[in-house]
Amino acid sequence: xxxxxxxxxxxxxxxxxxxxxxxxxxxxxxxxxxxxxxxxxxxxxxxxxxxxxxxxxxxxxxxxxxxxxxxxxxxxxxxxxxxxxxxxxxxxxxxxxxxxxxxxxxxxxxxxxxxxxxxxxxxxxxxxxxxxxxxxxxxxxxxxxxxxxxxxxxxxxxxxxxxxxxxxxxxxxxxxxxxxxxxxxxxxxxxxxxxxxxxxxxxxxxxxxxxxxxxxxxxxxxxxxxxxxxxxxxxxxxxxxxxxxxxxxxxx
Length: 252
Prior knowledge:
Blueprint: H1 23-37, E1 43-47, E2 62-65, H2 71-81, E3 87-93, H3 94-100, H4 102-110, E4 116-121, H5 151-154, H6 160-165, E5 172-177, H7 181-199, E6 205-210, H8 214-217, H9 221-235, E7 239-243, H10 244-251
Parallel strand pairs: 1-2, 1-3, 3-4, 4-6, 5-6
Antiparallel strand pairs: 5-7
Helix pairs in contact: 1-7, 3-4
């Protein structure tokens, strides 16, 4: 009986991510969803600038490179060009999605574009050296906030899931984490559901994944996972923020 196997949608290559980085876990969850739904041959992934800039080296499906922050716009064009034949997802970090790409994110959600967004929130800019991101916590030390994020000068972090859930357009908005086995399993279910929503033509789904960045946080991988529990999840509570299918069932 096979109890473990590498997803076919994940290529058998070494990844460039730092030790302890949880991007690899999320990549596997995305690949597992693609495999389980049998959509590899018609899936197109959009990889923008950021730590995931080379995601095209890791997924076995077709991939497109997008300019920084523009993945939802590219995904919109790809999906609209073949709405019934393609399954389109973006894989974006917080600096990409919640900063330079915020407009693309909000308006794709408002239009309920039938795409799937995987949003990695590790509260920092990763690839460019550890600068403060829109999601960096109050008081968090980064390369550009060496004394901690001062909300009087820099404002408060952006809670993307809560914000998008206020829009009428989106079908499904949820926040998960990948810092322990239980949370990884729940994240896998959420990602699969987000893809299924697109296959069913329901519209915009975003899965926010609370992730670690040991290198730029200046922590060991173990301490980084603990920091998610102690600091990140209290500020970014896990859970479903919008699910129109569930809301419809409750109304009935």
